[in-house]
Design brief:
By secondary structure, this protein is mainly α. The chain has two domains: about 1-75, no CATH class; about 75-135, no CATH class. It is about 80% helix and about 0% strand. It is built from seven helices and no strands. The protein has helices spanning about 1-10, 15-40, 40-75, 75-85, 90-100, 110-120, 125-135. The termini are far apart.
């Protein structure tokens, strides 16, 4: 199997990363197959629970990806800077508050974006409002 992976990925450069990528799903699959043979009723219950979780998460995930796609297609960084500029007023304030509230992930991941916005002319006060609402 390793030889097949070596040949299939850029002359063997990324075969280790491919193995790491596939290791967890393969281990989980093996565990499920073992459980299916040892305790079929509990394994089927686990499959049903997994399906229920997937069904409940699929709509929110699709909505998030759709919003991300639309934002990437229609909102340009220059437009955001215009709303976050020094004379932005109430619109800039509301945008900073809303963006801070809906932002996710670790705070340090936002620093490069905030630096870029600052370099393009965003007001310090609105960036601070974003960070404050990000913490909420």
């Amino acid at each position: 199997m390793i030889q097949v992976l070596k040949k299939g990925h850029k002359n063997g450069k990324n075969w280790k990363s491919t193995i790491r990528f596939l290791a967890f799903p393969a281990i989980v699959l093996v565990i499920y197959l073992i459980l299916l043979t040892l305790m079929p009723d509990k394994a089927i219950l686990a499959f049903k629970s997994c399906g229920n979780i997937l069904r409940s998460l699929i709509l929110p995930l699709c909505l998030v990806f759709a919003v991300m796609l639309l934002l990437n297609l229609f909102v340009k960084p220059a437009q955001i800077v215009r709303f976050l500029g020094t004379g932005a007023g109430v619109k800039g304030l509301l945008l900073a508050v809303a963006a801070g509230l809906i932002s996710a992930g670790p705070i340090y991941a936002w620093y490069p974006l905030l630096k870029d916005l600052k370099e393009k002319g965003a007001a310090n006060s609105l960036l601070a409002i974003f960070l404050y609402n990000r913490a909420v």
